[in-house]
Design goal:
- The complex is a heterodimer of chains A (385) and B (137).
- Chain A has 385 residues and is an alpha/beta fold.
- Chain A folds into two domains: 139 residues, Thiolase/Chalcone synthase (Peroxisomal Thiolase, Chain A, domain 1, 3-Layer(aba) Sandwich); 219 residues, 3-Layer(aba) Sandwich (Peroxisomal Thiolase, Chain A, domain 1).
- In chain A, the strands form two sheets. A nine-stranded mixed sheet of chain A has the order 3-2-4-7-1-8-11-10-9, sandwiched between helices. In chain A, strands 5-6 form a two-stranded antiparallel sheet.
- In chain A, a hairpin with a 2-residue loop joins strand 5 and strand 6.
- The longest helix of chain A is centred in the N-terminal third of the chain and has 16 residues.
- The two termini of chain A are 18 Å apart.
- Chain B is built from two helices and eight strands.
- A five-stranded antiparallel sheet of chain B has the order 6-5-4-7-8. Chain B has a three-stranded antiparallel sheet with strand order 2-1-3.
- Chain B is mainly β.
- The two termini of chain B are 32 Å apart.
- Chain B folds into two domains: 39 residues, no CATH class; 78 residues, OB fold (Dihydrolipoamide Acetyltransferase, E2P).
- Helix content of chain B is 9%, strand content 43%.
- Classes of the chains: A alpha/beta (385), B mainly beta (137).
- Chains A and B meet through helix 5, helix 6 and strand 5 of A and strand 4, strand 5 and strand 6 of B.
């Protein structure tokens, strides 16, 4: 297997982009990545997208997007794993480059979510849960994560204020990110007094509905210096795992076993452990998810992530900075693009180009991208070469 | 959005709470005696377990819950409503609405039992859709 490097990244400012279509958003991000890398060709491409059929009435994204980027007849593959479609696109492209099948591969993600109304978006997102046995009964995604939060509070004594601190911290980071959808700072009172969505989760515990795309160029590490002037970032660890789709079928609602398994695979491949990671982008679709995930990744003991977050350990300058980009909460969550958005942040940090949100001496970063209520997860570890 | 064939196909689970149970496990997966809801063909591809249909236990306890304040469109007349994960006395797990109980009196661990209720209505002229909810036992 060949070593793989990221040599180009591209994104735009995410948000409610009424005047932009799915193809327009994606092509912009892809051009930004190609321009950043400075490559004069791509051999293959992957697109992570969760539900374009439901959000914009369009499937067959491989053909559409290769066409509008002007790269036909290269092979193009759409991959789907709900909200970790983007992470899975990176893993798929990694395998193609590592295997020797292709040299220069575009990996990307996109979601155009605001062409439908709130009910339409809720319906499309809910297809990531068990349709016949959760959604039929009246479950929503905030509702499923709210049941995780209720269980976590009951078992570990997590307070409402500790949970809110996740959103406060992520918005503080997002206020330093020019690509963030909601770059405003939040107060603790602002979070705990926001509208109840599904007890105990409130509006400011939830990631937003977002239009956006992100893309990256990967190639064999040994060719990186010849292909691009950018400092190559090595993809050192890759892991993916699944868990039971319905929350009710899991032995432990707070464990997030797919995150445990996928991160262990990534750590093993990179030959490192949690203590060797300098920063991590995690899938904070809801505040409670960030707490469970940073425990599942091995950064904190079970039941302690709330207190660690309240103590500032996950903030910029803390012992383990989490979601320096602002996370899904502040940066936005165009579901299929989120995993590649995490890659954009991790590469920016490892290039030392994150400006005011730069993690000091960042040498090794991690990304955790999760589908549904935790039914699928993809983790990556990136290193400065 | 409901699909009539799928609604019809799921009626054994929704009307009669039919699951299945491994009555003999010949391999190491140790699923013998385990109740599955909805029924599964296998617990893994190599387990060799013998499954028999069962009606799941209709009493159990609440493992966790939430109050849905912002509902999906088809539940807009119901909100706020409680939704919980229940473990029945035979080990079967399910997600169901918790009804006939003041919202502020629902708590983790409370005993519940299954009741047959209307779940949702498919559009203005659509079919009424039934199934299970749970009430305090």
């Amino acid at each position: 297997m060949r070593d793989v490097a990221v040599i180009g990244i591209g994104i735009q400012k995410w948000g409610e982009l009424w005047d932009r279509s799915l193809r327009d958003l994606w092509v912009e991000a892809a051009l930004n990545a190609i321009g950043d890398a400075g490559v004069d060709r791509i051999d293959s491409m992957y697109v992570g997208c969760m539900a374009p059929g439901l959000f914009v009435g369009q499937e067959h994204l491989g053909s559409l997007l290769a066409d509008y980027l002007g790269v036909c007849p290269i092979p193009a593959t759409r991959v789907e794993s709900a909200c970790c479609s983007g992470g899975l696109a990176l893993r798929s492209g990694f395998i193609e480059v590592a295997s020797g099948m292709s040299d220069i591969v575009l990996v990307s993600g996109v979601e155009k979510m605001t062409d439908v109304d709130g009910g339409g978006a809720t319906y499309a997102l809910a297809t990531a849960a068990d349709g016949d046995y959760e959604v039929y009964q009246g479950a929503t995604f905030p509702g499923l994560y709210a049941m995780v939060a209720r269980d976590y509070m009951h078992r570990y004594g997590l307070t409402r204020e500790e949970l809110a601190q996740v959103a406060v911290k992520n918005h503080a980071n997002g206020s330093l990110n020019p690509h963030a959808q909601y770059p405003m700072k939040l107060t603790l009172e602002g979070v705990i007094n926001s509208t109840l969505i599904a007890d105990p989760l409130r509006l400011m515990d939830c990631s937003p509905i977002t239009d956006g795309a992100a893309a990256a160029i990967i190639c064999p590490l040994e060719m990186a210096k010849d292909l691009s002037k950018q400092p190559p970032v090595k993809v050192a660890g890759v892991g993916a795992a699944t868990d039971r789709i319905a929350l009710h079928d899991r032995d432990d609602f707070c464990e997030f076993a797919a995150t445990v398994h996928s991160s262990q695979a990534a750590y093993k491949m990179a030959g490192v452990g949690p203590a060797d990671i300098n920063f991590c982008e995690v899938h904070d679709c809801f505040t409670i998810a960030e707490l469970c995930v940073i425990e599942a990744l091995g950064f904190f003991e079970r039941g302690t992530a709330g207190k660690a977050t309240a103590a500032g350990e996950t903030a910029l300058g803390g012992k383990m900075p989490i979601n320096t980009s602002g996370g899904l909460k502040s940066k936005g969550h165009p579901v299929g693009a989120t995993g590649i958005g995490q890659l954009h942040e991790a590469v920016t940090q490892l290039r030392g180009a994150a400006g005011k949100r730069q993690v000091k001496d960042a040498r090794r970063g991690m990304m955790q991208n999760m589908g549904g209520s935790g039914g699928s997860t993809v983790c990556h570890i990136l290193e400065v070469v | 959005m409901a699909f009539i064939p799928s609604y019809w196909r799921e009626t054994p689970q929704r009307y009669r709470y039919e699951g299945n149970k491994c009555v003999k496990c010949e391999h190491k997966c140790d699923c013998e005696g385990r109740v599955f809801f909805p029924p599964r063909r296998v617990c893994d591809p190599w387990c060799g377990c013998q499954m028999e249909p069962v009606t799941i236990a209709t009493t159990g306890k609440l493992l966790t819950y939430t109050i849905i304040r912002i509902p999906p469109t088809q539940f807009s007349d119901e909100a706020p409503y409680a939704l919980g994960v229940c473990e029945m006395d035979d080990g079967a797990r399910l997600t169901a609405q918790v009804v006939d109980c003041p919202l502020d009196q629902i708590e983790i661990g409370m005993p519940v039992k299954i009741e047959f209720r209307r779940i949702q209505q498919d559009g203005e002229a659509g079919i009424l859709m039934y199934g299970y909810k749970v009430i305090p036992a």
